[in-house]
Amino acid sequence: MNASLLSIRGLRTSFPTRRGLVQAVDGVDLDVRPGECLGVVGESGSGKSVTFLSVLGLVRPPGRVEADAIGFLGRDLSRLSPSEMRAVRGREIAVTMQDALTALNPSFTVETQIVETIEAHDPSVGRKAARTRAIEMLRLVGIPDAERRLSAYPHQFSGGMRQRVMVAIALACRPKLLIADEPTTALDVTIQSQVLDLIDDMRATLGMSVVLITHDLGIVAERCERVAVMYAGQVVETGPTRQVVETPVHPYTRGLLRSMPRLSHLDAPLLPIDGQVPDPTRLPEGCRFQPRCPQAIEECLQPIRLRPVSPARAARCVLAGAEP
């Protein structure tokens, strides 16, 4: 924990609904180390995005966020006031949303949106200096003719270029941590690779850490040093990416990997995970994957903690470490 840039302990986020209380995040423990890329993977509704929106203080009422601690650079973010959190967001922790077209304001030019971010977090910077930095950021993320394109509106950019603009805004204040939430959504494969290469380059250039939120284990295997697999609001497995991909110990992680097509076995049938994700208002009492798990035993009916299975790995399974 002492080596972590971000250390999340006991994070719980819930939303009251007419059908009951939705526990979107339940007891999440995660660490992000300086300079690393942590992949957070899981199917839709597993709690990936809500976890980091909770860290950033962006969950609106009636949603409720509780945590034992959210440590970042010697401070507990869960104890900060709204104004103190506003100073952290954008300056020290930045986020890129899934869809740049909806995340960017269509009524303002790119210049206005980048300059506003810089001025909000560094009032000592004058308008001229902020504009100069905005041009530098567009050049840094690979947008050609940056000075001219600064006066363009979001709809005048292609999908890949909008993603680059959003990365430029996120990195304008040189944050120490970037949370990239599905940064390749709705992009074709070539543009996806370009955007991910850009994030890798910016991580190396600025020395920042990255949390890459995705549902694609292939992207995680290629880009991330460590991975956390989430299911139904909980982390079910975490560890070095190569180890988790090559020798998964949680049945859900194995199921995700078996359901992926492989270039080396194009004729092999895909093996989907049986069943459905549980109703978030009626979660199983014990292991949340137990109703879908082919290895479930009686012990799985009891609550299960995330437990160490090696010095660098942990899993939420009573059979963790057993042969698949």
- End-to-end separation in angstroms reads 31 Å
Domains, number:
1
Based on secondary structure, the structural category is alpha/beta
Across the major sheet, the strand order is 7-8-9-3-10-11-13-12
| Contiguous helical run count | 11
Percent in helix: 25-40%
Question: How would you characterize the largest beta sheet?
Answer: 8 strands, mixed
SS strand fraction: 15-25%
Keywords:
324 residues; five-stranded antiparallel beta sheet; eight-stranded mixed beta sheet; single chain; Rossmann fold; alpha/beta; globular
In short:
The chain has helices spanning 48-55, 82-88, 100-103, 110-121, 127-140, 146-149, 159-171, 189-206, 217-223, 241-246, 251-258; strands at residues 6-17, 20-32, 37-41, 64-66, 69-72, 75-76, 93-96, 177-181, 209-214, 226-231, 234-240, 307-310, 313-315. The protein has 324 residues and is of the alpha/beta class.
